[in-house]
Amino acid sequence: MIANSGWRDIWPRLFERPDALMLELGAGGELLVAQLRAALSLVLLLLPLVNVATGEYTPWEATIGMLGAVLAVVMSQVWLALARHRGLYRWLPWATSSYDVTLTTLVLALLAVGSPATGLNSMVIWVFYLVAICMTALRNDGRLTVAIGVLAMLQYGGLAVVVFTLAEAPEQLMSLDYGTATVANVVQRLVLIAMMTTITGTVVYRMQRLVDLSGTDGLTGLPNRTWLAHRFPSMLDATRGQGGSLSICLLNLDHFKRINDEIGHQAGDRALRHAVDVLQTQLEEGDFLARLGGEEFALLMPLPIGRAWERLDSMRRTATSQPFLADPGADPLRVTFSAGIAVWPQDGTDLAQLLRRADVRLRQAKLEGRNRVLARDT
After folding, report:
1. Residue 63 and residue 24 in one domain
2. Cβ neighbours of residue 214 under 8 Å, at least 6 residues apart?
3. Is there a cis peptide before residue 59, judged by omega within 30 degrees of 0?
4. Three-class SS of residue 8?
5. Which of 59, 83, 174, 351 is deepest in the core (most CB within 10 A)?
């Protein structure tokens, strides 16, 4: 359970590569981050304008602030244009998050040229390290959160080392507006970055666990309808890009209510898992099996409908030949299934249309005597 997860569970999970559903959700998160970045950069542009109008900052500080804000606005539009191609650029979250941190360091470094204390102590700019780390949570990738947190610590720590090394007199590290830059202050800020990284990493882990629970069937461990709904668009895009076909097979176990009534629901659950095990042993690369509910499953194959029918009918025969034993010495129980197949794009252009067409053929297979696969209307 989520509540009982300890650090030994959290950190290994954070370094795992996200699965297909997490990548799909992360692509949506990247688009949201890009939109937030574009909006925030416009707000950020107002800060140096206000500073110039009020005269509270030196001309150097106002100039650096304006240049940084203009760069942020321009780049935010570039990242937004790339993020609109959801999931196309897998490197994009890493590039944009690194950019957010590096831009913060660049602005601090330019401020340090005019005033070393300003470069290290400007909380208005420094806080964007924390913003960059916080926004990695929307990408659903714990590796990214940890990497960006470490990058922020290295860059800010490196900037501090350079500033302290080049300072020729203690007075250069003092400022009436920003106070004195000290090693203790730098260490405190590095600790804050580490704390934000840890908190954000924990949030990412919890989000991943919640997605696991919402997208995984508890009985069989298969992806569920939620997972299928999120995963299907990216599968369809990949099929479209390759110029191939995508077949959706709707499977329903035959007379499963009778099985539950005869051997009990607990044994019925084992019979269901037995059927899933038989199907999973026959899956090939690119196949995706999901449980939609009850005794109904969806199997996606990147194949034309004729080839999909051959594969699925072979799986049906294998399932028929491997009976289920509820208990040692009990009579073997045959668990068969009926299925209907629909193919993109001939039978539909979205998941709902394809499932409806496959369901029509599944119902026909049931009417014709069950334990059969139909790939066309009869």
Report:
1. yes
2. 226
3. no
4. helix
5. 83
Residue 36, token pair as written in the block:
């937030």
**Contact (Cβ atoms closer than 8 angstroms) between residue 253 and residue 275:** yes
The answer to whether residue 147 sits within a structural domain is: yes
- Examine the pLDDT at 377 and tell me if it is beyond 80: no
Q: How many helices (H) and strands (E) does the chain have?
A: 13, 7
Domain count, the chain: 2
Q: Two tokens at 278?
A: 């038989």
Residues 6+ apart with CB under 8 A from 351: 228, 229, 232, 248
Q: Kindly report the CATH number assigned to the domain that includes residue 356.
A: 3.30.70.270
Q: What is the pLDDT of residue 3?
A: 43
The DSSP letter of residue 331 is P
CA distances from 174 to 109, 118, 180 (A): 16, 9, 4
Are both 205 and 248 inside the same structural domain?
no
139 and 30 Cβ atoms separated by less than 8 Å: yes
pTM for the predicted model, two decimal places = 0.62
Taking a C-beta distance cutoff of 8 angstroms, is the pair 15, 142 a contact? yes
* 95 closest CA partner among 54, 166, 37, 51: 37
Portion of the chain with pLDDT greater than 70, in percent? 87
Q: What angle do CA 368, 369, 372 make, to 5 degrees?
A: 85
Per-residue b or e along 225-244, where b marks 16 or more CB atoms closer than 10 Å to that residue's CB: bbbbebbbebbbeebeeeee
Q: Which residues of 57-79 are buried (b: 16+ CB within 10 A; e: fewer)?
A: beeebbebbbebbeebbebbeeb
Same domain, 7 and 140: yes
**Do 182 and 111 fall into the same domain?**
yes
- Pick the more confident residue, 87 or 71: 71
The answer to whether 254 touches 344, Cβ cutoff 8 Å, is: no
Per residue in 42-82, pLDDT (tens digit) is 777 776 666 656 656 666 666 776 777 788 888 889 988 98
94 within some domain: yes
* pLDDT for res 1: 38
pLDDT-derived band of residue 11, with 50, 70 and 90 as boundaries?
low
